[in-house]
Structure formats: C-alpha cells, structure tokens
Amino acid sequence: MGKNVHVASRPDGKWQAKTEGSSKAAKVTDTQKQAIDVGRSIAKNNQSELVIHGENGRIRDKDSYGNDPVPPVDKKH
Question: Quick one: which of 27, 52, 54, 66 could link to 38 by a disulfide (CB 3.0–4.6 Å)?
Fold first, then answer.
C-alpha cells in the first residue's frame, strides 16, 4: 500500500494534492475540486488513501483505494 495523499488549502489561497512525506506538492490548483481530482488519481495509482482537508485544516473526508484486508462498509457511496 502506498503513502496517503492529502488535499489541503495553502496560505496563498490555492489548493494542493500532496503525497505523505513529500516535501513538495504533487500539484497546486485554484480550486479544492481540482485538487481532489488530482489527489484521487494519485491515490488510485498508489493504492492508498485520499485524505481531504477543509479550509480550516481539519479532515472532512477520506476515500480508500488500497487493498484493505477487511473492507469497511462504505455508507457514503
């Protein structure tokens, strides 16, 4: 399983998709939706988890694209 991908706001008002442990963002975008789309693609390729943060920095959603040994019952999708 790969490293988690975090989508978060930046001080400059833009949004970023960043792989956990990386010093640089994989992609910087103008909107959260664009960053989520990029982050989702990276998470699927890495078979990892997408962690979406709100403007306040708190986690607001997660999506797992890994091979969970016991998949949780996803009530959102």
Answer: 27
